[in-house]
Amino acid sequence: MSETATTRPPLSPTPRSSLTRSKERGRTDRAELDAVLDAGLVCHLGVLLGGSPVVIPTVYGRDGDTLYLHGSTGAGNLRAAMTGDVSLTVTHVDGIVYARSAMHFSMNYRSAVIHGRPVVVTDEDARMHGMRVMVEHTAPGAWADVRSPNKKEMAATLVLALDLTEASVKVRTGGPRDDESDIETGGVWAGVLPMRQVFDPPISAADLDAGVEVPEYVAGRVTDSALVR
Amino acid sequence: MSETATTRPPLSPTPRSSLTRSKERGRTDRAELDAVLDAGLVCHLGVLLGGSPVVIPTVYGRDGDTLYLHGSTGAGNLRAAMTGDVSLTVTHVDGIVYARSAMHFSMNYRSAVIHGRPVVVTDEDARMHGMRVMVEHTAPGAWADVRSPNKKEMAATLVLALDLTEASVKVRTGGPRDDESDIETGGVWAGVLPMRQVFDPPISAADLDAGVEVPEYVAGRVTDSALVR
Known about the structure:
The first copy, chain A, is α+β, with helices and mostly antiparallel strands and 229 residues long. Chain A is built from six helices and twelve strands.
């Protein structure tokens, strides 16, 4: 994603975005925020509905310091909730941390939490830009190949923009942090079971017309393609 | 996880747990809820803090129709928020759905959304049971090997139980649902890029005492172990 700002302030979490403990895991570099967001595919969006929080998974896209979301213009309650205070979280789980004591079991992870109020994008060019950003985030390279949204589709679509000003990033890496006495006692395995997300070879649509090949922007995403059965 | 109830009501989403569109993706079988929860490692917990939603990633464990969470007794605000109305979501992304038009891009996913009010578990045996459920969810088989939480550790830990009564499950599978006119036009690749989470070979702690081998309950989780470099 392109950067729109040449000077960007460091991340400065507010009380609500620095809730959890383990402050040594906090990061303050905007590049780390960008990296966590760009590596994700789905965010968890928390909105307030009838006085209660509701957390829904949804797609997004980032352009500089703006995060785009979309919804349906038909969902009135959700539309109202999405333009109030929201909390948006993207999490990558990188490993399970096995410790020598139950209390020190943990996860290695990278997580970004954003707070703010999404605004409804109204300008038609800006709305189309938002759609492009989201499709290109989900499927880089695809926008130029596929049919663009038409007027009817865009009329049914709510495009929202969330400023990335109020954000925090937490990262945990490395092995278990066991108590000295448990390390001395010994005899128990401790370490990390690393995890990652992989893409398997693409499956063409059943009704795909003959002669259309898998484009490189899809095939190139496959993980360890040489090793796949 | 063991089942505590012999008869379990079907999932009956309330308005707040059936917010999003595409109702055909909704599932009503409790076994599907269990499967989505049991396959997850981290949930996204939405709480209300100072009038705004806050979404935090956290570990959990399930025993029958009870979901356990934990926190620190030191986090006063969070403790209060976690015993109010919460929304808890577990999502698995199974694939990126490439369509012939931008508007039909989608994800294949399995997602569970729970609503309720977690209660603080006070009985000491029940608290220890909750800890065991969470560790065994994160790291099946490990509880029997590691040092159990001591009194001091348990005193600093908040164990919460959330009833799984109000829950909804959504699942999307299969290829793109393109417009007939776009299928007729043709010429654009469409299909699914499948995704999954894999475990790589474990990394022993740097200070692990010699002679302690990786237990089978860890080694057995490694994905495609024969193919790993």
